[in-house]
Amino acid sequence: DLDWLGIKPHREEHQSKRTARYEDVAGALRAAGRLYACYETPDELDRRRKRQLARGLPPVYDRAGLKLTDEDRARLEAEGRKPHWRFRLDGRVVEWTDLIRGPQHIDTTGLSDPVLVRGDGSFLYTYTSVVDDIDFGITHVIRGEDHVVNTAVQIEMTEALGGNVPAYAHHSLLTGADGKGLSKRLGSLSIASLRESGLEAMAVVSHAALIGTSDSIHPYADYDELVEGFDLGKLSRAPARFDEAELRQLNAKLLHHLPWDAVKDRLGYGTEQFWMAVRGNIEVLADAEGWSRITTGEITPVVAEADRDFISTARDALPLEPWGADTWKTWTDAVKGASGRKGKGLFMPLRLALTGLDHGPELANLLPLIGREKAVERLG
I want to staple 106 with a disulfide (CB 3.0 to 4.6 A). Which of 113, 152, 205, 347 is the partner? Predict the structure, then answer.
């Protein structure tokens, strides 16, 4: 999916191959007194939270693990309990300037010390992502606003490990066009599903870059143009609304301006003349196939009984080939003079007979693609 979008990672890492690194860092945190063992079961923690809430207290972990003696730990482990490990927060106000939300401050006194290592020895993402960010020199972390509190915790962790705190940007969560959460109604929405529906990668990228900003939604030609105009500060704190109909309109705008060289390999048929004639009338690239059938295949002409004599007159007035850009005007001027028709009464019956449809690309561009032989047959 990322490759289709044109996003190339600078490097590829697998957390599954970094277990030894995570264990080393956890050991350093234990030695520094920042990681401590806890032995409560999930049920015990749940009952404790309920008691706190019943007393009107915040459901914050009481750091019982810090009070355990060596004898207590030995007894608990003899019972078969395996420790999970919590990071001891400083209990202070953590401040940072968010690139979207502006100045932020979170008092970690009101937060539970986060579990970094489970009882089975596996690591939580809250921990591994911080180690990775430090090791890989990550400078910016951009994510949803539901992670704002996590950021305060991860800033404390980063500082405890002696790392450089990255810049953070927390964007609003995406909703549907009606303002309801996407996850509840559009669970199937994914980059893969958008690709499979025939959308252009740059249309998806353009929409993603502009949704939630005050800028008008328009297609970018490439990443260079996008990057030049992109500014995180333009993102609104209000929920961004995703409207697939808007995305499809954006996709159509993009296709309407794509040159032949950008599509010929993917299209696999037609000519530049064909593409320039039909591109303004398609929403996704696959729509071009329908116009290819109309210009080169078989159709069912639509001729109303009241138009039969008019269509015969039009057929007899068809000029000889070769045909070019002026053929349509030359022909319709002649038909107008012979029939006395004009406007919609002149053009719509010709469109219906030549294409079988009441809409489509300019017939001045389609007629040379259809050719005289097929035109005579359809007007017959």
Answer: 152
Identify the pLDDT of residue 251: 97
Query: Which numeric CATH code is attached to 2-171?
Result: 3.40.50.620
Q: Which of 362, 292, 374, 377 is nearest to 329 (CA)?
A: 362
pTM beyond 0.85: the answer is no
As given in the structure block, the two tokens for residue 188 are 């199937």
Tokens of 14: 């697998």
Pick the CATH number of 272-379 from 3.40.50.1240, 1.10.10.10, 3.40.50.1820, 1.10.10.350: 1.10.10.350
Q: How far is CA 371 from the centre of its chain?
A: 42
Give the Cα separation of 363 and 329 in Å (integer).
10
Backbone φ, ψ for residue 235 (5° rounding): -70, 130
Residue 364: φ, ψ to 5°: -60, -30
Q: How far is CA 188 from CA 162, 193, 207, 222, 253, in A?
A: 41, 7, 18, 27, 25
**What architecture is domain 176-255?**
Orthogonal Bundle (1.10)
What is the rounded CA–CA span in Å between residue 150 and residue 155?
A: 9
Give the whole-angstrom CA distance, residue 150 versus residue 130: 11
Cα torsion 143, 145, 146, 151 to 10°: value is 70
Cβ–Cβ < 8 Å for 284, 197:
yes
Which candidate, 95, 112, 102, 110, places its Cα nearest to that of 155? 95
Q: What is d(CA 15, CA 13) in angstroms, rounded to the nearest whole number?
A: 7
Residue 183 pLDDT > 70, yes or no? no
Secondary-structure breakdown of the chain: helix, strand, coil percentages, each rounded to the nearest 5 = 55, 10, 35
- Does the N-terminal peptide bond of residue 103 adopt cis geometry, omega within 30 degrees of 0? no
Give the dihedral of Cα atoms 305, 310, 315, 320; nearest 10 deg: -160
Which structure tokens are listed for 334? 């002649």
Each residue's pLDDT tens digit, 59-81: 999 999 999 999 999 999 999 99
Confidence band for 125, pLDDT divided at 50, 70 and 90: very high
Structural domain boundaries in the chain = 2-171, 176-255, 272-379
Q: How many helices (H) and strands (E) does the chain have?
A: 18, 9
Per the document, the length of the chain is: 380
Helix or strand run (H / E) with residue 205: helix 201-210
